[in-house]
From TrEMBL:
Belongs to the UPRTase family. Keywords: Allosteric enzyme, Glycosyltransferase, GTP-binding, Magnesium, Nucleotide-binding, Transferase. Allosterically activated by GTP. It catalyses: UMP + diphosphate = 5-phospho-alpha-D-ribose 1-diphosphate + uracil. The keyword Cell division does not apply. Residues 8-209 form the Phosphoribosyltransferase domain. SUPFAM superfamilies: PRTase-like. This is Uracil phosphoribosyltransferase. InterPro entries: PRTase-like, PRTase_dom, Upp_B, UPRT, UPRTase/APRTase.
């Protein structure tokens, strides 16, 4: 994967995204749609996985059949909204290893501070897919990827539902080697850091909080 930004324009992804953006979508519908879109984004992010072959026997004959090469993928969810995407991605890649990064924003410095970190071992040998539905300022994704790189990760991709141009630029500056895969590049951020037109607070909408 060489492009820094990939927008998945598949009609089903775009249709489902419109249903999610609508403020009338219920929590259950929002969660289900996020799960479905995440599966389709995961399909895209894994398109170029390395393959090898394995000898198997079909009921008819022996054959050399293609299988995925190397260690299992690592999926890293940025808490808490990342968990809504994780479910969908895991349905497609059930054997993936899973990690979590928890960050909050310091009220004074406005910088992300880590409160939780747990990642699978041998990150350096895995494709590491970071999931967070909203790439807004990019501060938390950059900080999460800093942590993963410090832990050895070398081959990282970032999967999100919506991206703001500001977040994409921040990621490109801090982590130009990390491709971003998203369903939409929206217009801008508002002065509170929300994506416009966006869909509101993804965590609140998927968990039914306010
Ligand atoms: N996080 C969200 O949940 N929504 C936004 O619009 C921006 C960041």
């Amino acid at each position: 994967m060489t492009d820094h930004l990939t927008i998945v324009t598949h009609p089903l992804v775009q249709h489902k995204l419109t249903l999610m953006r609508d403020k009338g979508a219920s929590t259950a519908v929002f969660r289900q749609l996020l799960r479905e879109i995440s599966q389709m984004l995961a399909y895209e992010v894994t398109r170029e996985l390395e393959m090898t072959t394995q000898t198997i026997e079909t009921p008819m004959t022996e054959m050399e059949a293609p299988v995925l090469k190397g260690k299992k993928l690592a999926l890293i969810s940025i808490l808490r909204a990342g968990n809504g995407m994780l479910d969908g991605v895991l349905e497609l890649i059930p054997s993936a290893r899973v990690g979590f990064v928890g960050l909050y924003r310091d009220e004074k410095t406005l910088k992300p501070v880590q409160y939780y970190y747990k990642a699978p071992e041998s990150l350096e040998d895995r494709l590491v897919v970071v999931v967070d539905p909203m790439l807004a300022t990019g501060n938390s994704s950059v900080a999460a990827i800093d942590l993963l790189k410090a832990a050895g990760a070398k081959n990282i991709r970032f999967l999100c539902l919506l991206a703001a141009p500001e977040g994409v630029a921040r990621m490109k500056e801090a982590h130009p080697d990390v491709p971003i895969i998203t369903a939409s590049l929206d217009k801008c951020l508002n002065d509170k850091g929300y994506i416009i037109p966006g869909l509101g607070d993804a965590g609140d909408r998927m968990f039914g909080t306010k």
